[in-house]
Amino acid sequence: MNVLNQALAGTAAGLLFAASAFAQNPTSLVVPIESEPATRLIVGPPLPGPLATGVAYIPYRVENLRILPIGGPHSKNVSPRVGHLHITVDDLPWAWADYGRSDTIILVNLPRGEHRVLIEAVDPEGGLLTSQTVKFISPGKPAGR
Predict the structure, then answer these.
(1) 31-59: string of b/e by CB count within 10 Å (b at 16+)?
(2) Tally: H helices and E strands in the chain
């Protein structure tokens, strides 16, 4: 058998072996939600450079949750799990939602002093999955800006 035929025979045997192994242990890329691991939210402190100028860049990362602009009761059955973020600053009575994937919350024109930012990972209907709070001190917006 020439080299090309040997290579093709080896590749075919490998594919047959992989196919039979898969058939014996089938797996799915679509996992029922009840089997998915819990959502994790990891929030870092504001980046020091921008904070010195009065702008808070707060990095975050979510695990086991895709941040997407979808909602409604049927969205809770989407797998892998989807949701969005709710962000509240200094316990104010209003908040906003983040449906993007920037992995950074940016707050500008913060007054001088201590601030508290609550970041909540929620399901498509706003049900709380997990949350983190970050506290920091802003020097305020520099004079003349």
Answers:
(1) eeeeeeeebebebeebeeeebeebbbbbe
(2) 2, 8
In the DSSP assignment, the letter for residue 133 is E
**Residue 124 class from Cβ within 10 Å (0-12 exposed, 13-18 middle, 19+ buried)?**
buried
Q: What is the pTM of this model?
A: 0.73
Whether the link from the prior residue into 80 is cis, omega within 30° of 0, is yes
CB-based contact 117:94 (threshold 8 Å): no
DSSP 24-37: HS---SS--GGGSP
From the list 92, 90, 88, 79, the residue with the least C-alpha distance to 126 is: 88
| Per-residue pLDDT tens digits of the chain, which is 145 residues long | 565 445 434 544 444 444 444 445 454 455 666 788 999 999 999 999 999 988 999 999 999 999 988 888 888 888 888 999 999 999 999 888 888 878 999 999 888 999 999 999 999 999 999 999 999 999 987 655 5
- Candidates 3.30.565.10, 1.20.1250.10, 3.40.50.2000, 2.60.40.10; CATH matching 35-138: 2.60.40.10
Measure the CA–CA gap between 51 and 138, rounded to whole angstroms.
Answer: 6
